């Protein structure tokens, strides 16, 4: 990114040469150069109170065709219930070294972990995937099944895998059948013994992908003079996703 040049929309187009939204190149380059920013706040809406609920998650990927943000979650977490009731969500990334902030708002969807278990589960997953406005291979359930498997094997640590085998998050400790000191600390993607396979199957049944489909993306740059703020807005034009870009007052 050329932060010394004069702010204008020539730097921030609606789409890049490869057809992806113009904000993607800036977003990916910032995270590549500053990986600590991959931990970010993600806010959902508590349907019982209408209040926002925020927690930190870890950015896992930006899908190649649809530019959808992915992170992993335990299917038993409160945010899953929130998103099933209302998909409205927002995230924010701050890169201190460059003085750049991204605000990404849209709808977030939980991809069912059992999408490959039955025809009905696959049909339900397909409906969710279509709601995201996916493009290319990402329109298929198989793509999401493979992406979940890739994250299970290569995207998370053995310690994080083991957390999915623990009691439901938020359960009072005095109601847990297994004491915290007896919880498994790490597990591999696959097991060899029946006991290992059973524990891994239990953990994996709780492991899911959450997909945030952006509708507006805002980039604020505070280390350039004058400061810059650019907003991209997504629209659906006859089934094709397009992005409008507008420079606004910071």
Give a summary of the structure in a few sentences.
The chain is of the alpha+beta class. The protein has a single domain, classed as Electron Transport, Fmn-binding Protein, Chain A (Pnp Oxidase, Chain A). The chain is built from six helices and nine strands, in the order αββββαββααααβββ.
Structure description:
It comes from Naganishia liquefaciens. There is one protein chain. With 250 residues, this protein is an alpha+beta fold. The chain has 6 helices and 9 strands. Strands 1, 2, 3, 4, 5, 6, 7, 8 and 9 form a 9-stranded antiparallel sheet that branches.
Integer-rounded radius of gyration: 20 Å
Average pLDDT across residues?
A: 92
Can you tell me the CATH topology? Answer: Pnp Oxidase, Chain A
CATH class division: Mainly Beta
Main sheet overview = 9 strands, antiparallel
Which residues sit in consecutive blocks of at least 5 with pLDDT less than 50? 1-7
Helix count? 6
Overall helicity: 25-40%
Distance between the termini: 18 Å
- CATH architecture, by name, is Roll
Structural class: alpha+beta
Organism: Naganishia liquefaciens
GO molecular function, one term: FMN binding
Domain Pyridoxamine 5'-phosphate oxidase Alr4036 family FMN-binding: 22-111
Protein name: Pyridoxamine 5'-phosphate oxidase Alr4036 family FMN-binding domain-containing protein
């Amino acid at each position: 990114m050329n932060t010394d040049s004069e702010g204008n929309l020539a730097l921030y187009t609606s789409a890049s040469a490869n057809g992806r939204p113009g904000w993607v190149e800036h977003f990916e380059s910032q995270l590549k150069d500053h990986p600590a920013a991959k931990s970010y706040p993600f806010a959902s809406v508590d349907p019982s109170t209408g209040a926002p609920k925020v927690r930190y998650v870890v950015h896992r990927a930006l899908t190649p065709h649809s530019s959808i943000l992915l992170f992993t979650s335990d299917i038993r977490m409160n945010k899953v219930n929130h998103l099933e009731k209302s998909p409205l969500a927002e995230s924010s990334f701050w890169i201190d070294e460059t003085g750049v902030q991204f605000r990404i708002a849209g709808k977030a969807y939980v991809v069912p972990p059992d999408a490959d278990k039955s025809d009905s589960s696959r049909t339900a997953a397909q409906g969710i995937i279509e709601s995201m406005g996916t493009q290319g291979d990402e329109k298929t359930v198989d793509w999401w099944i493979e992406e979940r498997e890739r994250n299970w094997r290569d995207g998370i640590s053995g310690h994080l895998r083991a957390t999915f085998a623990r009691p439901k998050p938020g359960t009072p400790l005095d109601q847990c059948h297994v004491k915290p000191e007896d919880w498994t600390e790490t597990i591999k993607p696959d097991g060899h013994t029946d006991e290992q396979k059973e524990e891994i199957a239990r953990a994996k049944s709780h492991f899911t992908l959450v997909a945030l489909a952006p509708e507006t993306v805002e980039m604020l740059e505070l280390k350039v003079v004058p400061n810059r703020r650019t907003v991209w807005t997504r629209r659906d034009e006859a089934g094709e996703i397009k992005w409008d870009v507008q420079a606004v007052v910071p």
